[in-house]
Amino acid sequence: MYRTIYVPVDNSDYSNASIDLALTLGKAFRSSLVGSHVYAAKLHDVRFKQMEFTLPDEYKEETELEKQRKIHDALIARGLHLISDSYLDLMDARAKEAALSFERKHFDGKNFEAIVRDVNESGYDLVILGALGQGAVKDSLVGSVVERLLRRTEVDTLVVRDLAQVPTASVPAAIDGRIIVCLDGSQHSWAALVTACRLATQFEKTVELLAVASTASPEDEGAREDLALLRAHLQVAERYARAQGVKTSCQLLERPGLPRETIAAYVQVTPPWLLVAGRCGSDANGTAPIGSTTEHLLRHAPCNLLVSGKRVEPAGL
What we know:
Blueprint: E1 4-8, H1 13-29, E2 32-39, H2 41-50, H3 62-97, E3 102-108, H4 111-122, E4 126-130, H5 144-152, E5 156-160, E6 178-182, H6 187-203, E7 206-214, H7 221-243, E8 248-255, H8 259-269, E9 274-278, H9 292-300, E10 305-308
Parallel strand pairs: 1-2, 1-4, 2-3, 4-5, 6-7, 6-9, 7-8, 9-10
Antiparallel strand pairs: 5-10
């Protein structure tokens, strides 16, 4: 299912939990693991040049300045590379313990730009990264790197937010066995269903099929048709899941307001082991990199979120 799993690391709690989850999935699917860290040596080069006017006069001659710049650049790059390696050493050692292939990558540059470029060039099957990193702003729920990554890539991306639901070496089983998959009849949501069932089979979880309809008056024929269509989608999804040997339950929620707010409120009450959502929904115009519902869940759902970038036709289920 996942041949190659990619984890950008920064030694934060969420990053370390991402490594735990990558190892769990890697052992289940015999995946190859890739870890990366981005450092900013060039930024230090700029800062050094800004401070050159403070140097003693004997160092301000251009030849001497160039010499000092090279010494400074070499020391900074070497030091940051060593720090980067120390972050990756943990993942390397644990991958070896699990007998999994591991590749380490280092990049010098802006964090999200380097990660996005690597993801788009390397063909990974899954990216796992923390909702927040070392640069987290107080009270924030999701970092800018995650948001920028999801707007610029199409690969399946698992965002780690609920650390208590991540299996570790000391606590191998998660607390809650549910996987919730959001279903609206879009190709992305059917792909999310397939992914959820594969994970449920591998980790002995149940799958909860969740669809949401906005409450409308009984006279609203369009709303009645939408509701009937969602029921039909749930029936198809339930048949598919049961054919895979997965225990399922269905929830069709009729609520006022936007479906994305209903889903976020629903998972707030009893957060699942994992929430799986398609990258874009049935109302996508084909140009948006990520749908408004999934983006809302990224920002507000309290659980770990797997954004499925694949597409599946229901006829192929």
